[in-house]
Write a structure and sequence with these properties.
The protein is α/β, with parallel strands linked by helices. The protein has helices spanning 14-20, 42-52, 67-73, 78-89, 102-107, 113-117, 132-145, 170-175, 183-189, 237-247, and strands at residues 6-7, 27-30, 35-39, 61-63, 94-99, 123-128, 149-153, 178-181, 204-206, 229-232, 252-253.
Length: 259
């Protein structure tokens, strides 16, 4: 029997928070670009991979609900921190591939979640400003329950959900314990786009080299390598490219690299 979606009317989806504050749950929640599966422990991550029938070789997505949280969980340089802060202040969805800090690793549940959240280089994608329903869920989960929200797109691997809850697919519908529907919110983010022209994902920038080490600070110098690499275009890509150009003298655009 499929889970009945709950329509989001604003505020924090307490049903999703209550579920994820426990053990092993998976919730489908709306974001700016569509629907994601949210989990908070290894059991939930295992269920997510099963529901999506997805490969495990990609870095997991960490839902970050404050800059303070970001600075605790991830390794940053002042330049990377500055890029995040500008995106935060402008409410721009951004995800960067970063290594975990030691304090971040210590914040993970001691259940083996790290094996499913990090790639072989020890990195994950740390995402900010991903949309109010999911942001509010992740914030309350972290601030009130001390749990980090992990995420993945809520669609069969390789297929988009088109920003509609009905697009998540039967397998994910069956697997989800809670579904927070907000088709109207998702549509409001890209009002001038249709199902074929809208972005179904956020921009992703790799801030590490092939070994998972942070790119060096550039300090205004030219042709520093390795450099930040935009590896996935998405919502607000033009603004993020402008901010990258403001922050870094050199950066690369390599759509699809690693992904």
């Amino acid at each position: 029997m499929s889970t009945t979606p709950i329509h989001w009317t604003g505020g924090t989806p307490t049903e999703a928070v209550d579920l994820l504050s426990g053990e092993g749950g998976i919730a489908v929640v709306a974001t700016k670009v569509g629907y994601i599966i949210m989990t908070s422990d290894k059991e939930g991550l295992e269920r997510k991979f099963d529901a999506k029938e997805r490969n495990r070789n990609k870095p997991g997505v960490v839902l970050v609900s404050s800059l303070e949280m970001l600075r605790k969980l991830a390794q940053l340089t002042p330049e990377i921190d500055s890029l995040y802060e500008r995106c935060w202040n402008e409410d721009v969805l951004l995800g960067c591939i970063l290594p975990w800090s030691e304090s971040g690793k210590a914040s993970l549940p001691a259940d083996g979640s790290d094996e499913l959240m990090m790639d072989t280089r020890g990195t994950s994608c740390f995402v900010i400003k991903f949309g109010l329903p999911a942001e509010n869920t992740a914030r309350e989960l972290y601030e009130k329950h001390g749990k980090i929200a992990f995420a993945s797109s809520a669609n069969p691997s390789g297929k988009g959900n088109r920003g509609l809850v009905e697009g998540i697919g039967e397998r994910i519908f069956e697997a989800a314990d809670v579904i927070i529907e907000a088709d109207d919110y998702v549509a409001s983010i890209q009002p001038d786009k249709d199902a074929d022209s809208r972005y179904e994902q956020g921009v992703m920038v790799s801030m590490v080299d092939v070994f998972g080490t942070l790119v060096p600070e550039q300090d205004g110098q030219r042709s520093i390598t390795p450099a930040p690499t935009l590896i996935r275009k998405g919502l607000a890509v033009d603004r993020i490219m402008s901010l990258l150009a403001d922050t870094f003298s050199s950066w690369d655009y390599r759509q699809g690299e690693y992904y």
